[in-house]
UniProtKB/TrEMBL annotation, chain A:
TM regions (residue ranges): none
Record-linked PROSITE patterns: 4FE4S_FER_1, 4FE4S_FER_2
Full protein name: DMSO reductase subunit B
One GO MF term: 4 iron, 4 sulfur cluster binding
InterPro entries referenced in this protein's UniProt entry, alphabetically: 4Fe4S_Fe-S-bd (IPR017896), 4Fe4S_Fe_S_CS (IPR017900), ET_IronSulfur_Cluster-Binding (IPR050954)
TrEMBL record, chain B:
Keywords: Membrane, Transmembrane, Transmembrane helix
Protein name, as recorded: DMSO reductase
Tree of life domain: Bacteria
An example Gene Ontology molecular-function term: dimethyl sulfoxide reductase activity
GO biological process, one term: anaerobic electron transport chain
Matching InterPro entries: DmsC
Transmembrane intervals: 7-30, 42-63, 84-101, 113-133, 145-163, 169-192, 255-273, 279-300
Organism placement in taxonomy: Bacteria, Pseudomonadati, Pseudomonadota, Gammaproteobacteria, Lysobacterales
GO cellular component: dimethyl sulfoxide reductase complex; plasma membrane
Length: 277, 313
């Protein structure tokens, strides 16, 4: 059925830290690798080793450049950090700190497993559905007729049509991993989360305010893009942390003021005396 | 949006076919249509051919066309499913009418079935339009003019095919034919003006999103897509970030307007002033209008921008 289920008790999703993501694409590769052989695969490519490879990826990593930092969003200061709309940003409060000229932000884009996704009700066959138990949005490849209307209905570009299979495919939140009792408990998480070398990706129940991911979202001001379209995404992105007074700033100060040896901790004081001889 | 040829051809041909059926059904129901077996059967068959050709072409758009029957199941939520169901149900009054025509304009069952035919045809066109108007990521299709334009274009092209095709079978009185020609001219002027207003609104509309909104990072500063996720194109860039038509949009709009509106209008005026010329001017008017609508429909897709395109450089 393509009618949406009542709000599920659990809202499983991802929290992606844009502060620590280094844009290595390991999540995208791990996702492709797992799902090619997983219950919702395969993900065949046309011309995989040739000049123009073409195929479905559930997860793609974009890179954005942000300039004019600290100028655009002074108005968002009053906004609650946990409203999920916009990221908390370095504004006037941190204006005395060293604001860099630009930020490079890597932005992994995949299905946000929305609470009210338009991709599901537009499906004419019932192939697209949202699970009543945990809110995961899936496509049944055996029912899909490949009309591609769901992809048009998704503002996040999260669904990709497989020309090779003639059906629509999308992120499954590794539903074939996270409930698999034959895996070790630490492996029961999506392949992208397990693969991330900087631990920028977190998986959990965003419907439970006491879960680790929910606490992370509350603490860091997690947001989801394009909320104004009303899809109520479950996934959250954690914005880059504001730049603080850091080591470089401190070093610049000490270069000007002479070092007060007596103020140092005992070990350093001894070293300072030793080296000053 | 990438204009898929199968959808462009389907919506134009089926739209014309449902237009033919709507006019036939309404005129039968109102007893305004001249009696005669062939007078009814010919436009009925013409509509049948246009609708069926369109529906067959629409299957070409599917990745798994052999499963198309599944699309009839989710009518509770999906306009596409409703469209399929309405399209199939509309065949019932069409087939019934083929069996009921007695050559007597006052035969009540035929009039009732005619009314059902018109209702089914209009309902199907409504479902087609609602598929597009119900997609939040494509603001160009959510425009309030889209739904009436689908109806007006179906009535216009269908009306021209009806008038052009039926007049071979009907020795209708000059008065009825003249009134119908003027009615079509009114539909044509309404459609042309609404389409012009749609194109103007489209030109004035801002882009549906930029990189800052799409990534949600706008509050940080000025966001620019620095690097795409892959060196190659993907389904999303091909389907949602189609930009070819915008370069030629102005010229294509003029071609569409001349073929779909200007030329048929002139030919309708000729037909209205000298009804004996009808067999020579109405079929060309129907063909020109259909060709023009193919360009119009191609632009309807190609000029519509999808929010997801904003993620890409």
């Amino acid at each position: 059925m393509t009618a949406l289920p009542p709000p599920p008790p659990k809202k499983l999703g991802l929290v992606i830290d844009l502060d620590t993501c280094v844009g290595c694409h390991a999540c995208a590769v791990a996702c492709k690798s797992w799902n090619d052989g997983g219950a919702f695969g395969p993900l065949p490519d046309a011309d995989p080793l040739g000049a123009a490879p073409d195929g479905v990826w559930f997860n793609r990593v974009h890179t954005y450049e942000v300039t004019g930092l600290g100028t655009a969003g002074a108005a968002s200061e009053q906004r609650k950090a946990d409203d999920g709309g916009r990221p908390e940003i370095p504004t006037a409060a941190t204006a005395h700190s060293r604001v860099p000229p630009a930020l490079t932000i890597h932005f992994p884009r995949s299905c946000l497993h929305c609470e009210t996704p338009a991709c599901v009700p537009v499906c004419p066959t019932g192939a697209s559905y949202k699970r009543a138990e945990d809110g995961i949005v899936l496509v049944d490849a055996d029912k899909c007729i490949g009309c591609q209307l769901c992809a048009w209905a998704c503002p996040y570009g999260a669904r990709e049509f497989s020309a090779a299979r003639g059906v629509m495919q999308k992120c499954t939140l590794c539903v074939d991993r996270i409930y698999d009792d034959s895996l070790a408990p630490q492996d029961r998480q999506p392949a992208c989360v397990a693969a991330c070398p900087t631990r920028a990706r977190h998986f959990g129940d965003l419907g439970d305010p006491h879960s680790e991911v929910s606490k992370l979202v509350a603490e860091r001001g997690g947001f989801a893009p394009l909320q104004e379209l009303g899809y109520a995404p479950v996934n959250r992105y954690l914005p880059p942390r504001p730049h603080r007074d850091d080591g470089a700033h401190a070093a610049a100060e000490t270069a000007e003021a002479p070092l007060d040896g007596e103020a140092l901790p005992p070990l350093l004081r001894w070293l300072d005396r030793l080296l000053s001889r | 949006m990438r204009p898929a040829l199968s959808i462009v051809v389907f919506t134009v041909l089926a739209g014309a076919g449902y237009g033919v059926w709507t006019w036939l059904g309404v005129l039968l129901a109102l007893r305004a249509y001249p009696p005669g077996r062939n007078a009814t059967l010919l436009p009925l068959a013409l509509g049948f051919a246009l609708v069926s050709a369109g529906l067959v072409v629409s299957l070409l758009h599917l990745g798994q066309p052999q499963r198309a029957w599944r699309a009839l199941t989710q009518w509770r939520t999906s306009w596409l499913s409703r469209e399929g169901l309405a399209a199939l149900l509309t065949y019932l009054p069409a087939l019934a009418l083929a069996g009921l025509v007695r050559g007597d304009a006052s035969f009540l069952p035929a009039r009732l079935v005619g009314a059902l035919l018109a209702l089914g045809a209009l309902a199907t066109v409504t479902c087609t339009a609602r598929i597009y108007t119900s997609l939040p990521p494509i603001p160009a299709w959510r425009d309030r003019r889209v739904l009436p334009l689908f109806h007006l274009h179906a009535l216009l092209s269908g009306g021209l095919w009806f008038a052009g095709g039926a007049q071979f079978a009907v020795r209708s009185t000059a008065g009825v034919a003249l009134a119908f020609a003027w009615l079509l001219a009114v539909v044509l002027l309404l459609a042309a003006n609404l389409k012009r207003a749609y194109w103007r609104a489209l030109d004035a509309a801002p882009a549906p999103a930029d990189a800052g909104r799409a990534s949600g990072l706008a509050a940080l500063g000025t966001v620019r897509a620095f690097e795409g996720p892959a060196t190659e194109a993907s389904y999303v860039t091909r389907e949602m970030a189609f930009a070819l038509a915008r370069r030629h949009a102005a010229r294509l709009r003029r071609i569409a307007a001349v073929l779909a509106y200007s030329l048929p209008f002139l030919l309708l005026c000729v037909a209205a002033f000298d009804m004996t010329l009808r067999p020579w001017v109405l079929p060309p008017a129907a063909i020109a209008c259909t060709l023009g609508l193919l360009v119009e429909r191609w632009l309807f897709f190609a000029e519509a921008k999808h929010v997801a395109a904003a993620y890409f450089p």
